[in-house]
Structure formats: structure tokens, C-alpha cells
Amino acid sequence: MDEIHIVGGKKICGSIVVQGSKNTVLPLMAASLLHAGVSVLRGCPRITDVFCMEEILQRLGAVTWWKEHDLYLDCTRANGTEVPEQYAGKMRCSVILLGALLGRWQKGAIGYPGGCVIGKRPVDLHLYALRSLGAEITEQEGMLHASARKLKGGEIFFAKKSVGATEQAVLAAVLAEGKTVIRNCAEEPEILWLCRYLRSMGARICGEGGPCIEIEGVSALQGGEMKIPADRIVTGTYLCAAAATRGKVTIPNAPEGELDAFLEVYRKMGGQYEWKSGKLIANGMGIRFPVEYLETAVYPGFPTDLQSPLLAVLATVDGESCIKENIFENRFRICQELAEMGAEVQTDGRKVKIRGGRLAGCRVRAGELRGGAALVIAALAAEGYSVVEGNSFIRRGYENLCGDLRAAGGLITEDTGSIYI
Ligand code: UD1
Predict the structure, then answer these.
(1) Half-sphere exposure at residue 279, Cβ-oriented, CA atoms within 13 angstroms
(2) Nearest atom of ligand 1 to the alpha carbon of 167
(3) For the chain, which terminal residue's Cβ has fewer other Cβ atoms within 10 angstroms, N or C?
């Protein structure tokens, strides 16, 4: 059954160890393809997006295996260059494989990328980056075909900051001939981790974490190994679950320094937090103030991925809040569901105004990953019984949302039989 069952009204209180970061591990998996040997990613989240990327790599000829949460990728005999649409269509991030395929074999083809239904999500910047390094790209029958005699380092200036396109450019440039300079690149922590990982494989990169990355191409890479850092968005999600229920959580492995914009808003809403020996202790018992105005932004601004979870918290707060979504235009899909639970919600283009208060449980439907997690948060705070349909969207990015929240006191289960246990 693709449903989550929740009896709301219990405070989320406890200590939750957060899974490895989805948005970090996926590009690292793509990067592993650049080396004809074994790479190890430790502490990987066991989520469906990772399984999907694993399946794509297998399809390209990689041999993969797991030891608990450590993922081994042996790309020695990988020789496929085509990612069929049935895989690419499931997960938008797969488009970055094009840069890795070009880097390793000077050619690659991929079905038009899919992913969450949260906006237009074009790939023009990805293609621009690859063309800047000498790739020729054509679109035939829903597939993007890219090839080059040999990728050559070049100047890339992004007209707009994009996480995926920056990753694409980095993946293509590390084995290109000569120097690449990428300007106006994304500065998200995931970019830092990708560059660190590639450096551990022998790539020559500097400047990551800032607006300009410089890469000196090398002729080959060696095997990589990295411990995947804790997921900043999952950390924020659990803080939101505790905030919406006026509970208190400790995250022993929270990624310090990666959540500052979120924590500032958390404090403004009346939450309190402190860092103690690397642990994040967040007390949401005093959450009561609406957020007058907030815009999502590229890092280090407020992350678009936490906009829906925050909206769920604001649905429980008296008074009017206003959020403007600047990254993905279609990220207000949960507004109707929040309204059904009792919040007053008004959308106007990229802006949403929400007036919260007491919510009542009901049947709602998740249409995408973060919106799904947000509906779970709202249901935990609502009075009575809720069903959140669309758990498969949530499983794309959360390894054990229900189990983690249940261990922290929530009456929540994927299995209707055990809700009161
Ligand atoms: C990544 C994250 C996603 C997060 C997003 C923004 C992964 C797997 N996903 O997505 O969770 O919400 O960053 O932090 O890491 N754009 C273009 N042309 C392009 C590419 C992007 O116009 O070629 C636009 C997008 O439509 C969007 C903006 O740029 O408006 C930012 O998108 P981008 O940073 O690329 O997001 P993703 O890498 O897809």
C-alpha cells in the first residue's frame, strides 16, 4: 500500500540520527563512472532515487553491491553509453550522467530527464556547459545524444545558478584536455562534496563553494571513497515535524553550517536551538510566530526543498505568513491539501499566503517528494486521523520517515495494523 497512516496530536520528541544526503550521493555515484575500478560510498541512504541511479549504472555495465549502508561501485567493465528513457524519466538528476559518459567515452545518450513535478525544469544550462567543452548535442526521438572527439577545457559562464548544471560541468571537465573555468556556479554544499570526492580520485579542482570553480583536466582518475554527509533537508524536515507538534528533537549528526538560513527562520517563529558537541538540539515548544515574508533562494539562502515542510509548520501557527518561491514555480501543490486540513491558504503566482491554526486530520495525496513530507508533518500536528497517499514519492528521498518519527513519539505507520502499538 502506498499510504501513510497518522493519528495526529502527539509531540515529536527525541533523538534522530539523520540519513546520508540524497543530493550528495547521486552526483558521487555518477562521478564513480569516471574511473575504471571500484569506488566506495559509505553511509548511503537506502532510498529509491539511489536504487534508481544504481540500476542505471548497472545497466551501463557497472557491478554494484551493498554492505549495510556502504555502496560499492565497480565500473571496471562499464562500457554502456546509453541511459534509456525508462530510467532517465524516473529521476531528473540522471541528466548529469551525460557529462560523466562524455568524460569517460566521449559520447553518451540519455532519455529526456524526469523527476518531481515541481516546475518546468529545463536542461538548457546543462547542454550549454557541455557544448562549451566541445560536445555536439542533438535531440532525436526523445533522447539527447552528445559526442566529442575529445572534450576540451573552456570557459563556462552560467546565466543562472544551477546545482545540476554545475555538477554536469564539473563531471565533464575533470577528464577534459586543459583548463576549465566555471563562473556563476552553484555554491550548495553538494557541489563542495562532489569536488572533494573527485579530488580524492585525483582530479585537479579548486574554488568550489564559491562562485568560480577552476579545473585542470587530468588523463585518468583513481577509485574514490567517501562518507556521505548527513542530509541537510532531512534534518530540516525533522525539525519541522517537531516544530509543528511543538516538540523537541536532537540531531546528533546534523550538518553544522549548512542550515543557517533555515535555523534563522526557525528562531523567528519562536523555536530555540543550540549546537552542543556537534549535536543540534532544537526546541519547538515555543513556535508561535508567523513568518511575515520569506523568499526561497540559492544557497546560502532559504532552500526551496524546505519550503513545503515550513509551510506545514506555518499551517499550525496563528496569523498570516507569506512565502515567495523563487526556484521552482510549481511548488505549491500541497496548498489545496493544507486547506482541506483547515489552513487558510491563498496562492498568487509564485507567492503563497497562509493563515494557520488548528488542523483536522483527513485523507490527502502527496504529488512529489518534499510536498509529501510536508503533508506528513501537517498530519502529525492535526487532530485526529489522516492518510497520506503517495508514500512512493516520499521514499525517493527519505529512508525511514515513518520509523524515525514513530521512534520520536509520532503515531505513524505505513502498515495500518500497527498504528496504536
Ligand atoms: C537540485 C536538487 C533539488 C533542489 C534544487 C535547488 C538534486 C538531485 N536536486 O535540483 O533537490 O531543489 O537543486 O536547490 O540535487 N534551470 C534552468 N536550466 C537548466 C537547469 C536549471 O533554467 O538547465 C533552472 C531550474 O528550472 C530552476 C533553477 O534553475 O528554476 C535551479 O535548478 P537547479 O539548481 O538546476 O536544480 P536541480 O539541480 O534540478
Answers:
(1) 13
(2) 38
(3) C
